[in-house]
Amino acid sequence: MRDAFESKQEPKFQIHYVMAAAQWILWNGQMFFDGVVHPMPIEDRSLKFGELYTGGGSQLSIERWHFWKKGFAAASVDRDDWGDECRMLARKAENLMGAIEQGMTF
């Protein structure tokens, strides 16, 4: 997620990070969001903020979740040069993130 949306990447490489992040959400999004809803102190380099993320919250937070969801939304419509597969995966990830968020928050 950080490499896809929080770090500056060359567009020819970012497409691969976005597709990998989308797959991650499609396979593990519910478990991941559980960590957002029930945060635990985590000392893990993989969860550190990237330079493009300026929001607050802990390493896993609803603000960061929304930042990633917006990244998928942008990738699904703004990047014609990335091809149909990437845009479709980004759209699916964004939709699933919304459904997970709605289903797991009260």
Task: Explain the layout of strands and helices.
Blueprint: H1 2-6, H2 11-37, H3 62-77, H4 83-104
What does this structure look like?
It is built from four helices and no strands. The chain has 106 residues and is mainly α. The protein has one domain. Helix 2 runs antiparallel to helix 3, helix 2 runs parallel beside helix 4 and helix 3 packs antiparallel against helix 4.
Average residue-wise pLDDT: 84
Q: How would the global form be characterised?
A: globular
Alpha-carbon distance between the two ends? 25 Å
**In sequence order, what are the helices and strands, one letter per element?**
HHHH
Largest sheet: none
Can you give me a brief rundown of this structure?
Helices cover 66% and strands 0% of the residues. The protein has 106 residues and is mainly alpha-helical. The radius of gyration is 13 Å and the shape is globular.
Based on the model shown, name its key terms:
4 helices; mainly alpha; globular; 106 residues; OpdG
